[in-house]
Amino acid sequence: MELRLSPTTLPTTVRPALTPKSASASLTAPAGQGFSSALKGALNAVNQAQNHAVQLQHEVQMENPKVSLEETMVAIQKAQIGFQATLHVRNRMVQAYTDIMNMQV
């Protein structure tokens, strides 16, 4: 299974602003604002989604009438999809590292 994240499928906290000005600015951005900051932002977004899902699940278990079961199930599914995407990214990174380390120089 291949997972491709386009700018429209990324979480809104990670999605770049798709304007020509930001595209040229990203080319000249310092090294700290590249892949590592995007990855860190994505991990934080997945973590927040999981925490939100756990909170909603706890509220449903405590029979809070303000929290619906449907909202809770959607939050759980969003957190699960984000976690699966994170695992795919990690597996791809580990595979790329392994491939590079096995290259003959």
Q: Tell me the overall shape.
A: elongated
Low-confidence stretches: 22-29
The residue-averaged pLDDT reads 80
Structural classification = mainly alpha
Percentage of residues in strands = under 5%
Fraction of residues in helix: 55-70%
Question: SSE string, helix = H, strand = E?
Answer: HHH
Description:
The protein has helices at residues 20-27, 35-61, 69-101. The two termini are 31 Å apart. The protein contains three helices and no strands. The protein is elongated and about 65 Å long. 65% of the residues lie in helices and 0% in strands. The chain has a domain at 33-101. With 105 residues, the chain is mostly helical.
What characteristics describe this protein?
mainly alpha, 105 residues, 3 helices, 65% helix
Provide a compact summary of the structure:
65% of the residues lie in helices and 0% in strands.
How would the blueprint of this fold be written?
Elements lengths: L19 H8 L7 H27 L7 H33 L4
Helix pairs in contact: 2-3
